[in-house]
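in:
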């Protein structure tokens, strides 16, 4: 079951829950949130007298496989990336190149996307490439370029981490850790990013169900990190005209089931530059809390994913329209 503890719940209530869970022989997995609330997940149902203690709100969840992530645990979460709120009234725009290319290039693209309305800089230093012969990224040097761009522009940085052993190093430079589509079910990686004090962008596996995606998020929360943002980035469908198909059903579907913010990636979700703006805006209309978009000053020359990369000018138009659409679909953080 899920027990939500209000801010200011007495310590005696927490102790009684722990004691009752211990008697039942089931672990009490507790997660504290910045707003003072806490969520405790217990396998099995606590006795009625414990549920009547001050501060306790109990839910008996059908979705036992993802109780921390469930909407029954919390109404809504706002995840802070540096000083940028994901899941608030404003749509967040994360933008930058697919892969970090060099120092000057990174500074230039960071300035350009900030100018175009982005508030978080994206860029891959460790790239999960389908072919082992494709450019794999600059590694730690790329992280240093991103960190320098953050110092100059003030934008927090999101970048991918592929292996548990790299998590500490990437977290040293980045403000948010991206777990890529191909790693959504890399359980050692999920557990590891769950132990680190950085928010996580969890991309949906392109062959994963919504439920599997939520269970992957549950690994991170159950490991102690409540700051997860889900990213719908397209699933594999049958039409070779599209690299992937942005599954916009998944946005309101996930929002019904979880309190975590959801963003969409119209770049990988289409694979096609000409479709990015439409699908970005459709994503916001479907209730997404933001976007992650691949942008390059000269998209045709981008070292990775050129076909789906747009210009800063195109991003500026998307950011402006996304804000207008968000205003229509959301009031006080709630979809209307
Ligand atoms: C990326 O964001 O560049 C990326 C590799 O995304 P995905 O994991 O969704 O393919
Ligand atoms: Mn890419």
């Amino acid at each position: 079951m899920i027990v939500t503890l209000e801010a200011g719940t007495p310590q005696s209530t927490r102790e009684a829950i722990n004691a009752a869970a211990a008697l039942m022989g089931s672990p009490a997995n507790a997660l504290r949130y910045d707003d003072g609330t806490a969520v405790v997940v217990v396998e099995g149902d606590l006795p009625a007298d414990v549920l009547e203690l001050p501060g306790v709100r109990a839910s008996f969840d059908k979705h036992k496989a993802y109780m921390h992530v469930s909407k029954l645990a919390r109404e809504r979460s706002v995840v802070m990336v540096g000083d940028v709120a994901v899941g608030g009234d404003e749509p967040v725009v994360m933008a930058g190149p697919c892969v970090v290319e060099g120092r000057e290039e990174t500074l230039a693209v960071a300035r350009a996307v900030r100018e175009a309305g982005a508030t978080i800089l994206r860029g891959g230093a460790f790239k999960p490439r389908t072919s082992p012969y494709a450019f794999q990224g600059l590694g730690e040097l790329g992280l240093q370029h991103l960190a320098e761009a953050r110092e100059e522009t003030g934008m927090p940085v999101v970048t991918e981490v592929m292996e548990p052993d790299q998590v500490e190093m990437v977290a040293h430079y980045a403000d948010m850790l991206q777990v890529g589509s191909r790693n959504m079910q890399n359980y050692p990686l999920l557990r590891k990013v769950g132990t680190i004090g950085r928010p996580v962008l969890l991309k949906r596996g392109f062959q994963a169900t919504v439920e599997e995606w939520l269970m992957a998020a549950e690994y991170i929360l159950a490991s102690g990190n409540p700051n997860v943002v889900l990213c719908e980035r397209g699933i594999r469908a049958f039409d070779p005209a599209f690299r992937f198909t942005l599954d916009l059903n998944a946005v309101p579907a996930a929002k019904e089931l979880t309190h975590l913010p959801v963003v969409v990636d119209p770049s990988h979700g289409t694979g096609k530059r000409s479709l990015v703006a439409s699908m970005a805006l459709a994503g916001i209309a479907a209730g997404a809390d933001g976007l992650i978009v691949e942008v390059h000053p000269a998209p045709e020359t981008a070292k990775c994913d050129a076909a789906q990369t747009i210009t800063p000018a195109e991003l500026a138009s998307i950011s402006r329209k996304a804000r207008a659409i968000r205003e229509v679909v959301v009031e006080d953080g709630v979809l209307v």
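note: The two ends are 29 Å apart (CA to CA).
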